[in-house]
User: Fold these one by one.
Assistant:
Number 1:
Amino acid sequence: MKKLYVTGIGPGGMDDCTMRADRALAESETVVGYTAYLDLVRGRFPDKEYISTPMGGELARVRKALVSAASGRTTCLICSGDAGVYGMAGPALFMADKYPDVSVEVIPGVTAATGAAAVLGAPLMNDFCVISLSDDLTPWEVIEKRLRAAAAGDFVIALYNPRSRRRPRTLACAVKILKDAGVPEETPCGLAGRIGREGAWSRLTTLEELADDEQIDMFTTVVIGNSRTRVKDGRLITARGYGGEEDGG
Amino acid sequence: MKKLYVTGIGPGGMDDCTMRADRALAESETVVGYTAYLDLVRGRFPDKEYISTPMGGELARVRKALVSAASGRTTCLICSGDAGVYGMAGPALFMADKYPDVSVEVIPGVTAATGAAAVLGAPLMNDFCVISLSDDLTPWEVIEKRLRAAAAGDFVIALYNPRSRRRPRTLACAVKILKDAGVPEETPCGLAGRIGREGAWSRLTTLEELADDEQIDMFTTVVIGNSRTRVKDGRLITARGYGGEEDGG
């Protein structure tokens, strides 16, 4: 059976790549992905065929990977983070029936939410949700509904794609929705950008000041605490519920 | 500076462990964790000191790891999945101020939600939330509120700790709450148990039939689709929003 692996290499460089994903890359003859991520892999595996496609061309990228695998070359389609979280796994599986002799295997990776959480402390110690603020593929009304629901459920929230040049106001809109839904202005929040890469940065802020942070871009992960999130010694931590001093109580 | 690493080794065996976590284990003299997870690490690193603590003794485990690190032995505190998702990272950071010469570093891992998603297909391609049904540490009313909010937001839902011997009814209660909140009975769902280990299993079901599945236990991850989740060729896939046939449209 011809093989297509679909995997995320983690939020940063190859360090947060799993051993299973690394083995899939080692086994593959061809690696397909967005240019910036291919460069991270090339350092470790210089002797592969690399097929690079520009940002935004997701479906074309998936098709190229399936065509490569169908030609008999074991192929690995990569993205950052986890391929199953806003990634290439869905389109690859939806499109796979046109390539019946290709077996598609999805390999899980570290998604940006948990990568950012580790950099910031331990904000995802309790129930949380992950919401993308990009309205390229999801209508803004649906995003609004989800933000209100997240506030109603007192979830910790990890925001992906919080802001871009084309959408400079999305984060400010999201903050307003959360405040209107009753999330206190002083709620501790954390930002992590370029996790695990050159120029990595992170800082703590509050819901009140979040939208004013000018460094936030589409590669930043924003974590908004819930009612049990605290800042301790510069780390953002959500109490798990053990109670007592040892759990931030 | 004395060092304590806190890391998850992924949902399964060492295969889904990241290279960064693997390096932290290699560097450590002492590894602390729940017995079953230590056994997974021991195969790869036989010559460490292993400090094993029983299930449920989370705070004692964290204290032992901090004491070990404070004694000058580089120590790695491990759990399954990601240490920052219902894991040891929070207590370790909350308790670290009693051990001021220990530097605590959290290393992210693959959490069960994304591990299960990869086994099942690609159900987390759009906004999702992660909810634990264990009311050991979270009051059941809070869990209920979050389930209702998740339904209102049309989130894909990953449930952790769906059922245990002490809580045989929690999953059935959760399903009822979701149905009462308007989630259709025919909503596709997926189950994944013992991911990446001996005896791994997974299957698709529907919200209607979910609670009748007798194999579900506290180590099972349950994924409940949203309005855009489909079953195709035996895989659970949520449309990303590209539209058209290539996205399940």
Number 2:
Amino acid sequence: MSLLTIGTVAFDTIETPYGKAEKIVGGACTYISYAASYFIDKINLSAIIGGDFPQEEIDSLKARGVNLEGLEVDSEGLSFFWEGRYHTNMNSRDTLITDLNVLQDFNPILPESYKSSEYVMLGNLTPDIQMSVLEQLDGTQKLIAMDTMNFWMDIAMPRLKEVIAKVDILIINDEEARQLSGEYSLVKAAAIIHTMGPKYLVIKKGEHGALLFHHGQIFFAPALPLAEVFDPTGAGDTFAGGFMGYIAKTGDISYEGMKAGLIHGSAMASFCVEEFGIKRLKNLTQQEIDARLDEFAKLVHYKI
Amino acid sequence: MSLLTIGTVAFDTIETPYGKAEKIVGGACTYISYAASYFIDKINLSAIIGGDFPQEEIDSLKARGVNLEGLEVDSEGLSFFWEGRYHTNMNSRDTLITDLNVLQDFNPILPESYKSSEYVMLGNLTPDIQMSVLEQLDGTQKLIAMDTMNFWMDIAMPRLKEVIAKVDILIINDEEARQLSGEYSLVKAAAIIHTMGPKYLVIKKGEHGALLFHHGQIFFAPALPLAEVFDPTGAGDTFAGGFMGYIAKTGDISYEGMKAGLIHGSAMASFCVEEFGIKRLKNLTQQEIDARLDEFAKLVHYKI
């Protein structure tokens, strides 16, 4: 089983009430790939970086078994950079700087070996790039999931809807689901989004967990209540990576399989927020992951 | 098994994006009693009403098996009245009118037969009244739960803490837990609130479900995602009534028993919001409740 991950590999400067981390490694594709790497060893990464990206961070991804054949390096350019500051509640943040840099010219050409990836996780990028990736695939994919954001709904909704029509799973947050559907109720929003194409819809609610919708059926995965959320950056991408990585591992793309995927995604996201950036995702043990999965089971288990 | 319920029996005028209901029956004790009445038939209600409260509404409570010996009627006065308007998201509301009326002079004298109630649900009232009720009890209670609100934390924190020290379960919402503990993280808030006395803490998060804390253990009961939340008024009290009613029925005051209670409270609350006021709570069938409990089970059930 192989998983194609596409998105940003980048730098972030992050300020939270717990401190500030300057120019650390981030990017959707980075988080997705690290999280998925705990479940499968065939991850085909597609992204672009500048000459400023440290070799040891590339080596670190390689060491997690990530195939970097599709990692484009523009040695003349700078990597994508984002700087943001979280509010006290950690649920909202201000973006201070967004430097697209090399991302402006990103036009991913998939290596031949990537085109038959059975599973695909399209990170948040312009709908044009997402469509270009879909068009390069060989059509044998078992499951294609995508993320997006409000920004593309604001400026490129028609194109975005063309991409959404081509995927099996849309993974977005509650505000994005509301904007995309024009409905406040997430149940109503899901019904409308199903008509746009995706048979599965995952709505992320941050610290309030995530919902899976599948034509009238609803599953809820809680977020683990934590004493300290150190840095929420990348939690959504880590969730998506754990989710798709686990599904790629089991090969179970049924509703039941998706539910188990959601729990694994939530478990991986609960690690992500415990440290700045990708730090916590670099050296997890299977024991730690199993123990976390147990905590999730205990959190919702009851008998009547 | 008998459950003492104490709180307001009142009128509400409610405006939501779905419409307006003028001077309908509300009040914490009303919602608590209706919800609990589906699980036990010995409910001892203590409240005060004015001469304006309709006889048929009193008869309706009686018909649900509620003992009204402790319902004080001040025929010269008017019942407590609240008017509020919900915002589009239904999570926040503006209070437009609060007329205490007969509630100003409420000094509940418990009938003899109430004093040995095994279970007690103290609705949101002044800490002085809550304490007065506790002092009238005969000390044989199996489980005492209480609700409160930010307002009492603002103006009567020391007295409120004296009451909290005497109960087994505190049932409050997330903002109240944060204010009471001074901690933003609910996990940290719970640890502090446990030191104030209650061995169980239930934190209600509205549409995001409810958390049960018990000395380091955490259980999460989701709210049912609904296509339409018609009127959230009383949902928290209905939750508390279903919770305590179910526990009173089973007699199981263990952590496992509390968990099952939380699910029953959530199920009852999910009915409450489907209509204005107490309408939906008046004529539920056991089949409807069982079907709703099934929906909750499906919502969180997964296999790994």
Number 3:
Amino acid sequence: MRECEAARWLMERDRFLILTHVRPDGDTLGCAAALCAALVKRGKTAWVAPNPGVTDTYLGDIQPYFAPAGYEPEHIVAVDIATEGLFPADFAAYRGKTELCIDHHPSNSGYARHTCLDASAAACGEIIYRICREGLEVMDAEIARAIYLAVSTDTGCFVYSNTTPTTHRIAAQVMEYGDFFREINRRCFQTKSRKRLELESRLLQSARYYEEGRVVIGGVSLEDMAQVGASEADSEELSALLRQVEGVRAAATLRELAPGQWKLSLRTDADYLNDTDTCALLGGGGHAAASGATVSGIDRAGMERRVLEAICTVLNGR
Amino acid sequence: MRECEAARWLMERDRFLILTHVRPDGDTLGCAAALCAALVKRGKTAWVAPNPGVTDTYLGDIQPYFAPAGYEPEHIVAVDIATEGLFPADFAAYRGKTELCIDHHPSNSGYARHTCLDASAAACGEIIYRICREGLEVMDAEIARAIYLAVSTDTGCFVYSNTTPTTHRIAAQVMEYGDFFREINRRCFQTKSRKRLELESRLLQSARYYEEGRVVIGGVSLEDMAQVGASEADSEELSALLRQVEGVRAAATLRELAPGQWKLSLRTDADYLNDTDTCALLGGGGHAAASGATVSGIDRAGMERRVLEAICTVLNGR
């Protein structure tokens, strides 16, 4: 379904419930907030399904849109959700009931009755922007703010390789509606918890370099997590850190998930090391440039050795 | 002088030398490279004055434009240089000789015969973009790449508060000319030296928090620098790190410049702590939200105490 058709479909109906994905990020939440606000401004009744996984970072952005208890929707709309497997556990009742899915994931499974998909969009927020502005013909500071949240967070503030000229153009257009970008940038891209910084520090201290600095292996143990008092949220995306080290082309970040169980996250230059092959040697998998594996019955030193062996095997097999 | 006038002035002359500022950043270098390439494409002879301060990060971007030995220019053009005091030492011979200065600093001293100034531009690269595209009527992948370098680095990749819709629009426009943004983003925003990371780690380890976490004081000693083997380049903008800590509203970063001499860099929320007043108590100064002071004949513990006292004095005086 094209964007203008999705907008028409929405305008012909009422009483919507908007779904976001598990471990919600700024894109799914920004899309939900923007679409909800736009529909209400066009005279519709629309709410966002309360997602229990929202972190403090985004709670203020989405809470005003959460449906009140007892709300009975007539139409279910999903935003930025590629498969029903990504529904939060609380949303089990909505399986098989999504009428419209608006998404940018090429892997979208087509679970909804209608799917409005643009896999070239860096963020689902780009699609929602056009549906709101061109389809529903509504745009204001409230909607613009939510769109900015979506597109900026899904591109790491316009730094990731998925960013396109369209992303920048949409950012420029929504920024004209209000002075919200400074607060969002500060909160989402320029703030780290003390626990997070402490974890990063420990990870860097643990790093060992091989192959003249092109390979790095570092890790965070359960003891590190406990001593820091860190939560799962504090350890999200830690694997990006070692990848940033100058000269590194393959970064292996180890996390102890349970006593004697370690998870590898491998981030590589695809033309230096095939990370999928490397992780396959450890029973794992993934996709180009980012994959992982979990090994049980092993201690930290043993895991480091196994990972280094796997990397060297693949490097030598070139 | 308006941008179209600056372009006309350039088109009516030939044999240019383009100057960049001391400790050159991506904006001054990107502007120089873009303007030089555009002038050459319009049939002019133009070179950039070799700036000895260029770091490895930017050397590849600017070296091809450096003037050969013995080049004798007829017209001197400065880009992104607010005052002659910001000329590199090697450029002393050009003092008083700048005919055209293109800049975005409101503090520009007007040292050039003609000044083309737009203080609303986030980066000088925005002005150069318009001079090239609208004035000189030339734009291609080479010029676009240099413009992207300028505008992205001066806004921290579109995250700093100086970013505007215009910045995003120019990014979108230049990105249409070639696939250069990924390499620039990775090099400028997603790479840190091991020495830099080690310094950050030591700074974080040294941090002490006060006022329920709203105030933080941390530092890097000469011994830290020596043990890490870090250069001045590795310690640039370290003061931004503590400012990122969640909950912090005033971040004091101390650097030992010489034995017994410590420099404070203070970064604050202006509505929480007046940093200029605080630094004035230590004999320093600066501007809103970012200022500094240097104290001699003091050890680390003494400096920390003096800084905390100054902060508390200003906080209690509110």
